[in-house]
Each structure stands twice: as structure tokens, then as C-alpha cells.
Amino acid sequence: MYALLGTFVNTIAVLIGGSIGLILKKGLPERVADTVMKGIGLCVIYIGIDGCLEGSNALITIISAAVGAVIGELLDLDGKVNRLGGWLERKVSKNAEEGKNTIAKGFVSASLLFCVGAMTIVGSLNSGLSGDHQMLYTKSLLDFIAAIIFASSLGVGVLFSAVFVLVYQGAITLLAGLVAPFLTEVVIAEMTCIGSVLIMGIGLNMLGITKLKMMNYVPAIFLPILLCTFM
């Protein structure tokens, strides 16, 4: 269980930060909340652009996005997340339709932001292979701040992203010995790049420019593991 300490701390940080964000949201007028969300959207796009620079092979990014989208559409990942959002909303609120969109949007947006990037992968590998949680502790602080900001604009769905953090980072940590040979520096860089492209999509959605079904693109993040072997 010690190997998962960093992941547990990260999960708790998201939950606490998200809870603080929900408290702050209640005190924000709708007009202010909308302005804040658009400001966050601009920052999210910047984060995505910055992460895209990690990649060095545009072809891998293009193929990953295209094939990942096909896989996501066939599996209807976005539809499943939205149905889950509707179910969760029926459990916690009366306004099911509004909550469905809010929970799903918050969950997907926060999950991708918290779990895409080199810190997630390298930090989880360090925890699993050597018991070094320092990188995940640093990430926890960053995610804590991000969770406050995201929950204040996207709502309770951000809290549910803590489950994704726990499962995703925990899986990498527990399987570190098996997956480490495949997650080379090049693979991690390309995974970060395609993940950052998806983060840019989240930012565009937050600004109301697009209505991309971001969950359907998630499989693209993992395709560089295979593609980097041949390209």
C-alpha cells in the first residue's frame, strides 16, 4: 500500500480542492461565474499548447487522434459518461438535465487535466518502482489549486474526477514493473503531446467555440505506446 501513497495524497488533494471550489461557487453570481469559466478556458488552451511542444512526431499525433476517435466513437465513451452523469445527478439533485451536462463536463475536463502529462506517468512510475512520491506530492499541490478553480466553474463533476486519478495513477503505480519498459521518454513525450491536444479541445469547449465529445478522444492518449514502436 505504501507504493500508492502518492496517488492517495493526489486523490485527496483533488477532493479537498474541489470541495473548496464548490463552496466558492455558491457565492459567485452567474455572470461572474461565466466570465471566470471563460478565463479558465483560455488558460486551459495555453496549457494544451505548452504540452503539445513535448512531441516531436506530428504523424504520431495525427494517427493517434484519428484512430483514437474511431475507437471512442465505436465504444460511445462520451455517451456512457453522459449517462453516468445523468445517473449521478438523479442521486444528488432534482435538475437532472442540467446536472447531467455539468457533471459529465466537469468530470471529463478535470480528469484529462489531472491525468495527462509527464508528471502523472513519471511520478506514478517513481512511486511504483522506488517508493519515491516526491513528484506526485508536487503534482498534488498543483491539482489541489486546479481543482478549486475548476470546481468553482464546472461544479461537482470535478470531485468525481478524483476516482479517475485514483484508478489511472494507481494502475500505473501497481503495474510499474511491467509497463516501465514501454513508457520510454519518447513515448511519454508523445502521450503528453496528444493529451495536450485534447486539453486544447476542452478549452475550446469551455469558451463555447466547439462542442467536441472529448471523452471519445481519450483512447488516442495510449496509442503512442504502440505507434512509437514502429515510427
Keywords, separated by commas or semicolons:
231 residues, mainly alpha, 11 helices
Could you provide a short overview of the structure?
With 231 residues, the protein is mainly alpha-helical. The protein is built from 11 helices and no strands.
Radius of gyration: 17 Å
Distance from N terminus to C terminus (CA atoms, Å) equals: 37 Å
Average predicted confidence as pLDDT? 89
Low-confidence stretches: 96-100
Number of strands: 0
User: Which percent band covers the strand fraction?
Assistant: under 5%
Q: Can you walk through the features of this model?
A:
This protein is mostly helical and 231 residues long. It has one domain (2-230). Helices cover 79% and strands 0% of the residues. It has eleven helices and no strands. The longest helix is centred in the first third of the chain and has 23 residues, at 30-52. The chain is globular and about 50 Å long. Mean pLDDT is 89; it is low at 96-100.
Summarize the SSE layout with pairings:
Layout: H1 5-25, H2 30-52, H3 58-75, H4 77-92, H5 96-115, H6 118-130, H7 134-154, H8 157-174, H9 176-179, H10 185-206, H11 224-230
Helix pairs in contact: 1-7, 1-8, 2-7, 2-10, 4-5, 5-7, 5-8, 6-7, 6-8
